[in-house]
Amino acid sequence: MARVFADSGHEVDVFEKRSHIAGNCYDEYDQHGVLIHKYGPHYFRTDSEILLEYLSRFARWRSASYHVQAMIDGELVPLPISLSTLTTLTGRVFNEQELALYLQNARVGIGTSVEGQFEPKNAEEQCLVRFGTEIYQKFFLHYTAKQWGILPKDLSPSVTARIPLRYNFDQRYPEEKYQVLPSDGLTAMFKRMLFHPKIQVKINTIVGSEEIAALKLKYSLIFYTGPIDQYFNCVYGQLSYRSLYFEWKNFSFPYLWPCVQINYPNEHPYTRCVEIKHATGQLISSTTVCYEHPVRYCQDSTTEPYYPMLTQDNLQLLERYNVMVDEESVGSTPVHFVGRLAEYRYYNMDQILLKAYNLANMLV
Ligand code: UDP
Questions:
Q1: Long-range contacts of 281-285 (CB under 8 A, 24+ apart)
Q2: CA of 143 to the centre of ligand 1 (A)
Q3: How many domains does the structure of the chain reveal?
Q4: pLDDT tier at 109 (50, 70, 90 boundaries)?
Q5: 11 and 100, same domain (yes or no)
Q6: pLDDT confidence of 241, banded at 50, 70, 90?
Q7: Of 161, 189, 224, which closes a domain?
Q8: pTM of the model
Q9: What residues line ligand 1, using a CB cutoff of 6 Å?
């Protein structure tokens, strides 16, 4: 957004709480020289040629390999659920008809029926309706409980609906047409984007609700990207977020795993192990992997809010905050709320980049 406004002649100040740019997309070289995604893997993928074309001003791309496997009963099984998954699970080759038949027998009909289609009310129903009990229990139940600290029956169906179902052998995790990464990393792309005479970046600068009042006197437009409830001093109560603790390990050989991500639904306190080298394609003799331990987010601790927790209670609370968000978007200095935390939406990177790009172009 800063770049779109700067390119059309506006002066822009960017306030960044951390000591570096690029938000959670930030990548850096660790002490072993391995390029890591410090705040969890950011698998850039998009169907939008408009977004890709815009970002191409700041990046050269490399094709990225986003393959994920889940450790199920001591064996690595491809995810998302596809012909590859069923073939590996059962030891015999599945074709499309066999997968359709398997699912037809396994699926549990629950939820509200809309014109013959079951509308799941929560993530448990979403999995049972789509995959049946066996796949739900092996792949989703325990992973989801670990990741969110609550059971799938208490989460929005949209959370598990992120995982596709495929009637082919395609083992790429995302669905999108373009699956790429900037060849010199994500931070480098954002650095070039912010490198503009009309953009000032102020790092180590916290902008809380108190500072906003003063900023409104100085600026004609504000974009807020922090947690929505904290902007309003949590007047209606706190929304909950999920945080992560990242445990890093380096090994002095080229690769630990066959693919970028191994999920552990049923064992260990961590949910997954990410070996980002598979995606970055870096040629280096050692490898660094990251174990992700989900933890509760607490506003006054060192934990960081990474995910909105899409429960009914939070979504109801969000509606109340959104009334105030609408009020902020008008007036002499409109404030717009943009991003995962500010909108309390489980955006992927490309979705929020496109949203920000479109909003900036609309307002500029
Ligand atoms: N999920 C699961 N088992 C898996 C992978 C995902 O149960 O092996 C569920 C889980 O609830 C997770 C959600 O699907 O939070 C979305 O998964 P995704 O991989 O998109 O999570 P992210 O990369 O955003 O953490």
A1: 281/62, 281/64, 281/65, 281/181, 282/34, 282/35, 284/33, 284/34, 284/254, 285/252, 285/253, 285/254
A2: 7
A3: 2
A4: confident
A5: no
A6: very high
A7: 161
A8: 0.96
A9: 70, 79, 139-140, 143-144, 147, 159-160, 162-163, 263, 265
